[in-house]
UniProtKB/TrEMBL annotation:
Alphabetically ordered keywords of this record: Membrane, Transmembrane, Transmembrane helix
Listed transmembrane segments: 18-36, 56-81, 88-109, 145-163, 189-210, 222-245, 265-285, 305-322, 334-353, 373-403
Protein name (record): Quinol:cytochrome C oxidoreductase
Position of the signal peptide: none
Length: 424
């Protein structure tokens, strides 16, 4: 048996399942605690934790299928030896669709008030005391129908492309290997078709799920910024999973060269994230338009630790550690930075979502805007971190289950030899 054939089927052991199930149990417990320990009506801490983690991990899964499509379309071959990991990540979109539909149905059923625009009393011009002209002007897009039906169809389309690309990849193992590379040509067709759909639909989803918690605010850079946060998180989680599986004897063909490229992408897009962070902040600060500046003013004044900590964790740490070329070949360094970045970008999404949701919750309580520190909103608490661990465990449980269903090496991929001998 040669090196290519060794440990080519992943076994999802009972011990690994138990560890992840304990993690999921912790997440459920923390969600339950956030529900019963909430001081506001409609349990915004519970619902915001559910939204925060559902958006974060669904975005990671989306970025996996997006980057697969990018690599296929670009005729890239370096990633071939571990592409099964990204294919496994992509299948979590199905779980994300279910979770986001639950949140969307909650708008119709009045289970939560995560989104200020969902209050129909603000859209009635005859009600001069509460009428909100800005929200009324945006109501053609910010409404429950768009959130549930159109948003659901968009994510369902992501599910379709993730399933299609993975099924063609798996079928190539059995029926591929022909000189004409018919399977790979089909994959290039579907990958190229997905890219423009992914570009436009992800922006719409980000506007619906994330930016609309501050419905008076808008930024043309926000979709890029948020998607980049997802992308860096996906790369970091890829490194962690590959290091773990290599430690178990799998993916023997994934070398320091492949990790070096993953590290370069993680470094480069951390810098790109910082560029977008600065560009968005600088342009809004310089223009000094009230509708735009309120977003940053609110976060700087009331969430300074979160605001400045976000930049330190997601820029300074990867910048100074990954700048050296050799650190991107060292497993220990990559693992450390990857853990920091996954937590850092989860922190980033916390800062995007929680202030707007808290503002909406406080709008129904007289004097609550001056309440000071609010558990679960001002900073992530143990309940929030436990919920994140639960969602991470769920994500890994789904990914590892999918990974165990088929061989780890795409033996008939036309770029396999290039990937096996990848060197930079």
């Amino acid at each position: 048996m040669n090196k290519v054939d060794t440990m080519n089927e992943y076994t999802f052991t009972g011990k690994s399942r138990l560890v992840l199930m304990i993690g999921m149990g912790l997440g459920l417990l923390c969600l339950a605690l956030s529900f019963f320990m909430d001081g506001f009506d409609h349990h915004p801490r519970f619902w915001s934790n559910l939204l925060h983690n559902s958006v974060f991990f669904t975005g990671i899964a989306f970025m996996a299928v997006f980057f697969i499509s990018v690599c296929i379309t670009a005729w890239a071959g370096w990633y071939t030896v571990f592409k099964r990991v990204w294919e496994a990540f992509s299948q979590f979109i199905i779980v994300g669709l279910v979770l986001m539909l639950i949140i969307g149905i909650g708008i119709y059923a009045d289970w939560h008030h995560l989104y200020h625009w969902s209050d129909t009393s603000l859209l009635d011009p005859s009600n001069t005391a509460s009428y909100d002209e800005v929200l009324d002007g945006k109501s053609a897009f910010l409404n429950p129908f768009w959130y549930v039906v159109i948003g659901g169809l968009i994510v369902a389309a992501w599910v379709f492309f993730a399933y299609k690309l993975r099924s063609l990849s798996l079928d190539e193992d059995v029926n591929g290997g022909d000189a004409e590379f018919k399977h790979h040509r089909k994959m290039r067709f579907w990958a190229a078709a997905f890219l423009p759909i992914a570009g436009f639909s992800s922006a719409a989803i980000i506007w619906l799920w994330v930016m609309s918690v501050d419905p008076h605010w808008y930024s043309t850079l926000f979709a890029w910024y948020t998607a980049t946060s997802w992308f860096v998180s996906m790369l970091a989680l890829t490194i962690l999973v590959l290091v773990y599986l290599k430690g178990k004897g799998y993916f023997a063909n994934v070398s320091a060269e492949h990790f070096h490229d993953l590290g370069k992408f993680m470094f480069a897009f951390s810098i790109f994230w910082t560029y977008l962070w600065f560009s968005q902040y600088m342009l809004i600060w310089y223009a000094n338009v009230g509708e735009e500046t309120i977003y940053f003013k609110h976060r700087i004044d009331n969430y300074p630790v979160m605001f400045y900590g976000n930049l330190i964790i997601n820029f300074l740490v990867p910048f100074f550690i990954l700048m050296r070329n050799d650190t991107k070949r060292k497993f220990g360094t990559l693992v450390f930075v990857s853990i920091i970045l996954i937590f850092g970008h989860w922190w980033d999404f916390f800062l995007m979502l929680k202030p707007g949701i808290l503002h909406t919750a406080q709008s129904t309580v007289e004097g609550a805007h001056h309440a000071g520190f609010v558990a679960g909103f001002s900073l992530p608490g143990l309940i929030e971190i436990g919920t994140m661990i639960g969602f991470l465990s769920l994500f890994l449980f789904v990914a590892l289950t999918v990974l165990s269903k088929n061989t780890l090496l795409a033996k008939n991929d036309p770029f396999l030899e290039e990937s096996l001998h990848h060197h930079v």
